[in-house]
Amino acid sequence: MEFESRLIRAIRALNRHLPAERKTLATLLREDKPAVRGRDDTIQRIKKEELVKIASLIPEEYHPQLKLPIYIELTPDYGRGISRIRGRIECEVVLKLLHKPGASDTIFIYRDDIRRLRRELPTATQYAFVTQEL
Questions:
Q1: How many domains, the chain?
Q2: I need a labelling partner for 1 at 20 to 30 A (CA). Which of 60, 67, 73, 92 fits?
Q3: Tell me: the pLDDT tens digits for 39-91?
Q4: Residue 132's pLDDT is what?
């Protein structure tokens, strides 16, 4: 039990940079200086060019539903170099950006695709550290 509580505290510490609340694409597109506030109280800017790129990949009706940043979930549970993306619209954005077919509520991407995604959307994506329920 002690190990589990230490592990949970460590994961929370790793995720302090994550936003306290994510914003929708529609909201961020209307802002002069698009940004979210991290749990650690930092302001994290999201580049307008990235928002416009994302907006071009999905129908406008999805803009009020897509929450940003998109989380790239990392955990040893998936295997080395594998990350998970969750959310139907989030997956659609990532698959289109990576020029991959398919549609799903959850996708797993590998190290090369993670690098490509982070190069394309460095401010609109965030790493999130997760583990299976203890």
A1: 1
A2: 73
A3: 889 999 999 999 999 999 999 999 999 999 999 999 878 888 899 999 999 99
A4: 65
Residue 134, in any domain of the structure: no
CA distance 119 to 111: 12
Give me the domain span that covers residue 82: 2-129
Closest CA to 19 of 62, 63, 74, 70: 70
pTM for this entry:
0.89
Nearest to 87 by CA among 100, 63, 71, 106: 106
Mean pLDDT of the chain: 91
Alpha helices (runs of H) in 1-61, residue ranges in sequence order:
2-14, 25-30, 48-57
**Tokens 């040893």 identify what position?**
76
Q: Is 109 a member of any domain?
A: yes
Helix (H, G, I), strand (E, B) or coil at 106: strand
The two tokens of residue 50 are 């990235």
CA geometry: angle 7, 106, 59, nearest 5 deg: 130
